[in-house]
Every structure is written in structure tokens, then in C-alpha cells.
Amino acid sequence: MTPLSRRAFGGAALTALLAGCGGVGTDRPAPVHPEGTHHGTPGAEGTPQASPSGTGDAPRPLRRSVPVRLRIPAIGVDTPLLSLGLAPDGTVQVPPVTAHDRAGWYRHSPTPGQRGPSVILGHVTVGSYGNGVFRHLDRLRTGERIVARLENGTQAEFAVTTTRTVAKAHFPTEDVYGNVDRPELRLITCGGLRDGHGYRDNVIVFATVSSTGP
């Protein structure tokens, strides 16, 4: 694994990276501190800003409910969602490395359909098991659908606005975790070239809510 990286944002140390992805080919996030994340509501951190991912009116936000499934038809993803918290060392938990790889929602972020950036992480590779659930994340294009099903039976549908591949050293912390004024989604995995320490880049999908309901 590569050394973990930290960035300061809003007076709190925030993790922004999926560092590592080396060794057995897994994705390892750097530390994320819940007190530094932003849930899109006014408060001590300031007023929510307009999203960098898109513009326009959005459907009414949903109440908080744990996401249980994620579908991305364009790249064949249909995965149950794990709930990810923090490990004892302050890093974000990641889905276990198994033959049946699953993505995970970071539970200190908003739930999909709530106002703010909901964060979901997944592996691009899972060691000897091969490809991870987000292996084709970099193929997503503007307008393609992402559907999150929630525990209470509702769902939030999102449209991709941007797919970005960024060097881990230049991870766009504020764009990913910063306040937004409507429900949005961030999907994150590793990508780019691979060296002896793992993947050099992160792939980040930004998406804006397009509909909410049963």
C-alpha cells in the first residue's frame, strides 16, 4: 500500500483519496473524518454552494434512508451496497476483498437523494479474484443513469454530469465533499496507469439527481 495522504478542508482534516490499489490490487481510501464532511445544509461551515457538477432545478430531496442497492445499466453494475464507516486508524472502511465484490456507501455522507454529496466507493480490482465492481466506471458518459434503491423502498435516480480521472496527488477534495444545494452522487474508484505501488489515479463520477420516488 502507498502512504496515506491528508488534505485540510474547512478547518478539518479530510480524506479525499483512494490511495493504494497496489499489492493485491485493492482500493484503500485515505482518512476521512466525519466532522469534516459536508451534508449540504447551512451551518458553521457556511451556506451550501451551487454544485460544480451541473445546474438546474432538482426533484425534492428524500428523507434519510440507508441505500441498499446500486444499479448502473450502462456498465452492467447491479450491486448490493455495504455500509462503510471508519477503521480504527481513521481511514474509510472498504468493501471486503471477495469473489463477489460489492460497492459500499460511506455512512458519514448523505444518503442518496438527500441534499448533499452521497459518496459510494468500489474496487476496480480485487486481487486474485480479478475485476472489481467498478472496473468500468471510467466508461460512464454524461447523461447515463445511476439508480440507488433505499431501505425504505424509495429510490433516487441520478444522471452522470462528469467522469473525471485525476492524479491522487491532486484529488479535488472540495468538489467531492463540499456543500452542494441539492442531492448529488459521487462514485469513486482507482484508475489510470498502474505501477509497483498501485494505481496512480482516481476515477470519480459526479452525478446529479434526476428523479426521486417509490
Automatic annotation (TrEMBL):
<dbReference type="InterPro" id="IPR023365">
    <property type="entry name" value="Sortase_dom-sf"/>
</dbReference>
<keyword id="KW-0378">Hydrolase</keyword>
<dbReference type="InterPro" id="IPR005754">
    <property type="entry name" value="Sortase"/>
</dbReference>
<dbReference type="Pfam" id="PF04203">
    <property type="entry name" value="Sortase"/>
</dbReference>
<feature type="region of interest" description="Disordered">
    <location>
        <begin position="26"/>
        <end position="65"/>
    </location>
</feature>
<dbReference type="InterPro" id="IPR042001">
    <property type="entry name" value="Sortase_F"/>
</dbReference>
<dbReference type="GO" id="GO:0016787">
    <property type="term" value="F:hydrolase activity"/>
</dbReference>
<protein>
    <submittedName>
        <fullName>Class F sortase</fullName>
    </submittedName>
</protein>
